[in-house]
Predict the structure.
Amino acid sequence: MPLTSSLGTTPTAKVYEVEEIVNLVRAGEIRIPEFQRPFRWGIEDARRLFDSILRGYPLGSLLLWERPAEEARIRLGALQIEAPKLDRALWVVDGQQRVTTLANALSPDASHDDRFALSLNLATQQFVSTTADHRATVVPLPVLFDLQSLMQWFRDKPEAMDFFDAATSAAKKIRQFKIPASVVETQDESVLRDIFDRLNSYGKRLTRAEVFSALHPVNDGNSRSSTSVIEEIASYLAGDLAFGDVDGDTILRAVLARRGPDISRDIRGEFDDRRESGEFPGEDADTAYHEAQNSLELAVNFLQRHADVPHFAFLPYRHLLIVLARFFAHYREPTEREVQLLRRWFWRAAAAGPELFPGSTTGTARALCARVVPGNRNETFAGLLAAVPREKVGYPDVANFRSNHATGKMIACSMWALHPRSLRDTLIIERSSLIEAVGNAQTPRPAMTAIISRGLPQELTGAAARWLLVPGLEYAPSEVPGVLATLPQGISDSAWRSVRESHAISEESVSALARGDSEKFVRSRTESLREATIHFMDSRWEYGFEETLSLDAFIVDDLESENSLSD
């Protein structure tokens, strides 16, 4: 920011009592500006805040921005407030967590929210969770804060009368506790954004995505909060595309990667006139968010339809989604051949992991993004594929399965690629059933069932063969071995064989189940799963095949060779 940018006037120093702050919030006179972050404090943060008040410890000062405010229904923590139009409202630049906690913890309307449900144990002078402590000496903070409510509380609890003086003393300390504030008046919102950015180095730190959303809000005329744009993209991916809960930082990196390969660059001036994106010059934040969502949608469609990754929980590494978003930002309609080559790159990069380049995940994501060259398909595919040579990849070990590890997710994808069938009706399980089972989980675990859990030697306890990918399983896990070992009534041999094969269960494995030999079953199925996983990876990697973008030249060459031989 140029040195000429400043507040222009000296901030006014004021002191607010807690009671005054709470009343201002309830009246809608204290607002939260668009560039503020989401509320992040929990019950322990609230407890520490009130403990500091009771001890007389300073809480730090507030920074308030005085400017007009429109009539609005606002939400502050758990409070819903009908706020009037004001010529002079106070907008919180620094201190949102403290102001929100004070207003909610001291208001009966927010007492249902576990983040704010605090009480004071009058006997010990300690703040406790309202929902966890129901002793006669424990008084909820909204009751303590309101004199009439406090008097009624003592009338209802005469056994606590010995603590009346302690209660009124604590109530007075809370209501009259003084918090200093600096109030600034400026029409230059960019100055306040700069202050906000600098103050973010204090207190409970924001995620990078929250900072980016706060510094670069949208201006589309909708009623949505600007800080929720990345959350709205995440909601779209989870709801409309049924892809699961993609974290905000991954979405932010996709937004950045679309506009340039360096995803770790300084985000504060991303849309400043002084920083022009060479790939999308003149683009504003509104357009960038919108186009990033479109690119992510294309990336998700590719993963689900062409790469056997049905859900975010199955994605081996998040940086792969970032690179795909950049690719689809520049190449929205790939040909069938390009999809094939992109699938090759994806699974090679997944098997190679984040150590391809220095800098681990960030360095590898940045290097791979740099290989997506706008306007040059040949260079893009050549660069991506060359980045992952055969010696860099390896097969996931089915004997060591962990659903929260990248290799475990690769194994789960290979299981999904077998088109697993229902044990009830023998039909191929629909992706919708998988999505419903996984929900917003970050691993495939909710869609999987451990059918063998006892009687195994130590070296087999981590085997993927213990698990079936059967979302919406109609049987108890202990019943599944018996179901698999016998032919259900009304189902043909061929149909039931298809069911077992769709779960990589061989005839040898079935025989072991029929004998009750769990160890033999796991060993036998481990070999079947190993073969299936190797086949899955090989058929996606396709090493040894031609990798140029266009095959036309090779078709012509082949025809000419055939003609020369026939002559």
Summary: The mean pLDDT is 86. The longest helix spans residues 518-541. Residues 12-193 form one domain.
